[in-house]
Amino acid sequence: MKAIQVLLVLSSFLPLSASARDSCRLTREVNGFDAPKQSRLSSLRDFARQNRLSFGIESVSSLDKQTSISAPSGTVLTIVKAIVGPISKTIECFEGVILVRDQNAPGPKWLNTRVPEFRLNRSRLGLANAALWMRVEVVLNPAQTGFAGDILGDLGEYVGPFDAKRATVRALLCHLAVSSPGTIWISEDIQPFGGTAWTNRLWTLVPYEATNRQ
Length: 214
Fold this sequence. Notes:
This protein is α+β, with helices and mostly antiparallel strands.
């Protein structure tokens, strides 16, 4: 286990490619999916990792229910619906990421916060996630003057570079996700459900590649 001191360094980058933005085609045909009895959230993670998809979960309500899944071959959308089950969720594609939202309740307000600028060189995913979190915290609380802490364990694959202006936090999290080999972000600080996960007071980020290397 190694610890790397978090440093926030802002410099120049290139924008996210257009092909990455189109990577969550909900009508794409995929193989059937089976999962043992576990939480619906864990099954979403396993399905996403199996098919190289990224997810953004704006609410985990009802996704903690333990159930087994057996879905025949079909589109990404039909299988995601089978995993989510008979609960009021909206499933849509945004910035290359499959978003799962409550139909009857908005996600956290901070997801709609616009960040004046987020610029970062190509970095390991764990460091990029920490840099984004610190940038968001400063926007939400301008009185914030500094951060201290370590990132423990696997730092994930390289992502970026990024150069975004006036993007929402939701969009920036999605940019992180689609720049990686596969990631799920959850708009809550939750206990990791297997493998590497990075948490802060706003969100949890789970990289699939790092999970596979455990």
